[in-house]
Give the backbone structure.
Amino acid sequence: MRDFGKLIRRVVEHLTRTRARAGWALTAASLLAYMASGHNEGLRQFWLVLTGVAAGAIFLPERDESVWRMSSAQLRAMVPEHRIAALQRLLIGARCESPQWADIVWQRGLEPLLEVGRNAELVIWDAKYDIAIHLIERRCGDVDVFRVDTLSRARRALPTAATRKYWVSVARTEEALQVEYQFSNCLTRELVMMPGVDPAVWRTAVADFCLVRMWFDGVAAQVHVDNSEGLSDVVRWYIDIPEEQQVSTAVPYTLQFDFPIPSAERNFPVLFNGYYSAGASEVTLRIDDPSGASELRYEQFLAYGLGAYVGEFSRSVDSTHSQQISFSTPRESLLWPGSGIVFHW
């Protein structure tokens, strides 16, 4: 039924395109002239031939050159998808001297990107991620920790999920963290390990310490914490996303997520896992160290096209012993999944 509907749309597009509309008008005018020619047989034959030529312009396909003048919407409506894909592969082959390389470019480069174009949830646009790590010991579940404050701002389409329920989570173990990665409903997750702490004590301590707030298009969403025993090694913060924001297109959001890390920790990874980061991306990490003994460093592993300008890092230090490293990309950038930065201090 869907294919039949698609066929009908293509027929309608074909019969109402610019050249077809002109053909309809000329056909109608020729018929009127034919009927008005009276008994002049020669003139009647002329108008009859012109009517046939004009009608042919309505139904006959366009010349091949017209493809280059079509809009993308017109091309999608008139040309089957498999034909478009064949043309794309042909054009790649025309640009590559090696057929083997042309196949790799298509299968491992262009085709995955085109597939992402049909799955808007796999792209995060203009992401800005601010992290502040306060190197002042606090207590959480009888463990010494540092507080990490994070603020994420971006545009994205919400992941497709069986139920329109979304959450942010903290996991107690590596195994529990990997389980959370399997849920598209989980917008982000962190690992907070406290060796020797009872799971029930861990759940209560994490729920009390962490802070989760979220805004969609500037409007605050309701957040509910679930640290029940049924979740075992995970605490979740469920987010009531407004129905008008549950769409397939990118919507602007802000997510505040504050959580603890062990005071013995000296690394903080920022990973772009499972999605493409498009547009102007920014990552900033700041450490506040009253002792002034730490030195903030980083290692980057950014996946992007060779020859492209990926962006730049900058560093700043102030008189209060705060150190900051920022990374930013140009407006038209694309970072591939698996990219990331690991900060050390």
About this structure: Helices lie at 2-15, 18-35, 41-59, 72-78, 81-95, 99-116, 174-181, 199-209. The chain has a mean pLDDT of 87.
